[in-house]
Design a protein that fits this description.
Elements: H1 10-16, H2 33-41, E1 44-49, H3 57-71, E2 75-80, H4 85-97, E3 102-106, H5 111-120, E4 125-129, E5 142-145, H6 150-163, E6 168-173, H7 178-194, E7 199-204, H8 211-223, E8 228-231, H9 236-243, E9 246-251, E10 262-268, H10 271-283, E11 302-304, H11 316-331
Parallel strand pairs: 1-2, 1-3, 3-4, 4-5, 6-7, 6-8, 8-9, 9-10
Antiparallel strand pairs: 10-11
Helix pairs in contact: 6-7, 6-11, 8-9
Amino acid sequence: MRKPDNIMTFADFSRRRLLQAAGMGAATLALPGALRGALAQSPIKTAAIYTVPVEQQWVSRIHKAANTAKDRGDIEYAFSESVSNNDYERVMREYCEAGHQLIIGEAFAVEDAARAVAADYPDRAFLIGSSFKPDADKNPNFAVFDNYIQDASYLTGIIAGAMTKSKKIGMVGGYPIPEVNRLMNAFMAGVRETAADAAFQVAFIGSWFDPPKAKETAFAQIDAGADIMYAERFGVSDAAKERGILAIGNVIDTQADYPDTVVASALWHFEPTLDAAIAAVKAGSFKADDYGAYSFMKAGGCSLAPLGTFEGKLPEAAMKMVMEKEAAIRDGSFSVTIDDNEPKSG
């Protein structure tokens, strides 16, 4: 596998904001009938391009789902990790030229380049993580997804609010972009259900993968009185463990590594998103869709991780609320607000 250095600057992040969101389209990927039949019968040649190591939380969930699909024979799977923003377009084109039919990736800092590649390969299907909407007119073969796991994040907030004693909660994120903001805001809303007077310290480290910087930022918040940390990035739970306080996990379940620290986690399950795309490619109906809803709890795209070592140790009233809210989310009688605005300390 290729492992070039990953370099993501804030300027890179800002440039992607210049791409205007377009309305969702309905044009389908035009494939010859013979090709559609072949795809329906054989594994789909699939490639993924990641700007961070596959160990990183968000990407690890995509990687896990892809390996699951590979193991059951639905896809052939190749990937490149730690691809720099400047190299991303070239790697995408190489996979397309090599005959890969489904391209997966996260284009948050390389939107223009990713969409340009998709336009040049209209017979390929692109399933790309993005803050923006699909544009069927320009890219009928470019579908988007994101980790809309606000439902599970809200439930972890209820638990955090019930566990804090200082009523001060620290939060360390990567960048203040929608896919981070919505999870933090949902967590904060959950906290207020059980600790209406809680105060939040919110910080962003300007990186997707810098555990030492995240840890240092968390230490500063703990020194300022936080007794529970929201670990949106790797490194935060390490700080919490060293200082003997609790942490809330995000996207993956790390309690096995922090059995006395991580009290709850919001899990992202990418399988529903990828399985829907695979089915569409096999059916010859892949199109410029928004796959975001496949991350919702009622679609099986997210869940509250098992409490593990904290089972039976959490306040009964809080756990009753968690169960009631989860049931309401799943049956559609309650919806967690999707708030993409940057969360603020206070």
